[in-house]
Amino acid sequence: MKVLVAKSAGFCFGVDKAVKTVYDNIDNKPLYTYGPIIHNNQVVKDLEDKGIKVINSLEELITLPKGKVIIRSHGVGQQVYNYITENGFEVIDATCPFVKKIHRIVNDYSKIGDTIIIVGNPNHPEIIGIQGWSTSKPFIIQSKEDAEKLNLDINTPLCVVAQTTFNNLKYKEIIEIFLKKGYYVNIKDTICSATKKRQEEAIHLSKKVDKMLVVGGKHSSNTKKLYQLCKNQCDNTYHIETIEDLELLGFGNNETIGITAGASTPMNIIQEVITHVRSTE
């Protein structure tokens, strides 16, 4: 058996920074994270065991003892920062720098009158946070069909940004639709370089293997996108959260197995999957 592992599998810079921020402040209790620090159940459980509480709403926060609130890598809207500090809590900002960049773009361009188009999953916390930096009502789309349906003032410039983990090829297709319609488009390249590299590696790797394993949380947006990209190239692609998910999978001695992982997947989980696969030889 041959096992090939993508070079960029595992934590991206933003996720690594956010997780380290929590562990660096672990003795400063009460300590809270606004939402799960990353979309990985194992990391969140470890932090909860160490006394770090996940806050899922601002209403919940004000019922708790005053302390520090860590903003996760996905970021939040400006009003969330204000609410936390106005209620006597200290903010520790672990927002990914790439997401921060989108906040600044949306804020600046909405102030000068551009119509803001945000490309991504409307229910994802990153997109919800980005909305909170626009001074006008933004439009959120996630497909070419959504772009085709939008009928906006042709005389108003569009500022288009994408979720940092959005599919790069799909983003280009959506941009092309707006250009063909005749809009003046301020195109912002906001898909992070780590995401692009990870997606390109996954596509390349999945083309030359018999089975492809994508390791990451079931709720991780970027892991789901990796899975779909790999599935398009290799029918035998599987989304694995932990080694327990491998129990029903068999690996032949003559097979080539590819492994990649989402940006919120800890290296120890990736290594467990690699070790498990190799032990079946």
Query: What series of H and E elements makes up the topology?
Result: EHEHEHEHEHEHEHEHEHEHEEH
Largest sheet at a glance? Answer: 4 strands, parallel
**How many strand segments?**
12
Strand content: 15-25%
CATH level 1 class label of the largest domain: Alpha Beta
Question: Low-confidence runs (pLDDT<50, min 5 residues)?
Answer: none
Number of domains: 3
Supply the CATH architecture of the largest domain. Answer: 3-Layer(aba) Sandwich
Evaluate the radius of gyration: 20 Å
CATH topology of the largest domain: Cobalt-precorrin-4 Transmethylase, domain 1
Spell out the CATH superfamily of the largest domain: 4-hydroxy-3-methylbut-2-enyl diphosphate reductase, catalytic domain
Output the structural class. alpha/beta
Question: Could you write a compact summary of the structure shown?
Answer:
The protein folds into three domains: 2-10 and 193-279, 4-hydroxy-3-methylbut-2-enyl diphosphate reductase, catalytic domain (Cobalt-precorrin-4 Transmethylase, domain 1), CATH 3.40.1010.20; 13-96, Rossmann fold (3-Layer(aba) Sandwich), CATH 3.40.50.11270; 98-187, Cobalt-precorrin-4 Transmethylase, domain 1 (3-Layer(aba) Sandwich). The protein is 41% helix and 18% strand. It contains eleven helices and twelve strands.
Overview of this structure, please?
Helices cover 41% and strands 18% of the residues. By secondary structure, the protein is of the alpha/beta class. The protein has three domains: 2-10 and 193-279, Cobalt-precorrin-4 Transmethylase, domain 1 (3-Layer(aba) Sandwich); 13-96, Rossmann fold (3-Layer(aba) Sandwich); 98-187, 3-Layer(aba) Sandwich (Cobalt-precorrin-4 Transmethylase, domain 1). The chain has a four-stranded parallel sheet, sandwiched between helices. Helix 5 (97-111) runs parallel beside helix 6 and helix 9 packs parallel to helix 10 (221-233). The N and C termini lie close together (6 Å). The mean pLDDT is 92.
